[in-house]
Amino acid sequence: MLTEERHQLIRDQLAADGKVLAGELASRFGVSEDTVRRDLRELAKAGQLRRVYGGAVASAPFAAATLGQRSRHAVEEKTRLARAAVGLLSAGQSLFIDGGTTNEAIARAIPRDMELTVATNSLGVASALTDLPLVELIVLGGRYVPDLGTCVGADTLVAVAQLGADLFFLGSCGLDVARGVTAFDSAEAEVKRAMAKNSAGIVIAVTNDKLATAAPYRVAGADAIRHLVVEKTAPSATLADFQSRGAQVHFA
Amino acid sequence: MLTEERHQLIRDQLAADGKVLAGELASRFGVSEDTVRRDLRELAKAGQLRRVYGGAVASAPFAAATLGQRSRHAVEEKTRLARAAVGLLSAGQSLFIDGGTTNEAIARAIPRDMELTVATNSLGVASALTDLPLVELIVLGGRYVPDLGTCVGADTLVAVAQLGADLFFLGSCGLDVARGVTAFDSAEAEVKRAMAKNSAGIVIAVTNDKLATAAPYRVAGADAIRHLVVEKTAPSATLADFQSRGAQVHFA
DNA sequence: CTGCTTCTTGCATGAACAGGCAAAACATGC
DNA sequence: GCATGTTTTGCCTGTTCATGCAAGAAGCAG
What we know:
Chain A is about 40% helix and about 25% strand. Chain A is of the alpha/beta class. In chain A, helix 5 packs across helix 6, helix 6 packs parallel to helix 7 (about 125-130) and helix 8 packs parallel to helix 9. Chain A is elongated. The interface between A and B is large, with 44 and 37 residues. The structure holds a DNA duplex (30 and 30 nucleotides). Chains A, B: Keywords: DNA-binding, Repressor, Transcription, Transcription regulation.
């Protein structure tokens, strides 16, 4: 049995069942589980499936899976970032918070006794804030994009234009010193730009994998970032670049 | 059974029923309750559900609060109403859906393969619809009112004014033949009136306890109701009054 | 208050895992 | 044909992960 043959059969079963078990594949192919695990590792590296304990599941057939997958990834890190980011807040401030799992974690980390005004176009962030009694929540409506978990479009832009905020928590973006803050979607970038324009300061909290990456649509230059919240393990050279552009760096 | 599989099944049931019971999941999955609780803890940490004593509920804001308090016993009735109400839909329609637990149940009851355009000012309804691939979701933003679970205010009215719908699912109101459809809050009533004005037909699904009751703020007259979805046990005298005003009565 | 259920925490066990190593199969060059 | 290098594979070793069990804490009902 050829390696490539096994890979194809694994892909086939994933397409059919949505999952595969390492042990089951091993006995079906007549090879050891180690070999199967190696196959799964390779396919996972190629992004064709997602490795889980005991086997693997289809990587991202549905949007829900994508969002769920992203949010399960690096939960610990994002919670730590969120706690550090919340430390930047003071009572009575008004905020823009846009989409992304890190921003949702930040919303969940806001203490119950903090008085804030928050405007968000992310349903996840909004949900997290509904329980907080002292938060005045303004939902920025518009066309909802499942992949992003946020509302975008002309209606959203109009709603943003009528508001101002002390801080803008800008999420789910690429971050590169030369190219600045970038987004993956045109409409999403527009909303981010509008929020940035109406905010006194921008806060970005990112995991290491977002650092030194860029996406197609430019949102703002690196010098627009006031606070940058990163993991302790973030490469210091990159951080120094951002600091020289005026960003305060906070370690989670 | 993969851990990942259980998580997905839990998410599925939450999307369908709005709640899960730890013991019931344990026996269904063939694992100990400890394992289920661990699953629930993880999903809660990722913000995908909300932990409650005995199990978990959907993290949707309003659903959690009300499922906990106001209508724990009426869940089944509302699910039945929802199924009947969904029967009034046809593919390609556009809808307004406002707030209330009954409307959230209706949103959850919409089949995955139905193509619709839905505009809502309820975060609970919006959350329930985010998973449906064929639903174009428009969020009507504005100032969020935790008690209602909906957005209201001038921004919301502006957003509503730009849209039109075939049907308007009007929720959480008092219903009386003489006083018509009434709401408990002034701003809420304004939004409902705006939605009613821009809709071709109004659908109201109510449990018996809402029948023949009235709230302070008038939304529409009884003759504006096109479809009335009620429990089988609803008092026929009251229903006859509504029918004489032009409403079609549907039993759940 | 009392008794019951549910929940969290810590722990032990077995399964699943990654990395290193060596043998076998295969290809390549002389 | 023979030697050499590469790839694939299975096995071994220590590590990580998932799970069930037990004990104590917390929540709920009467």
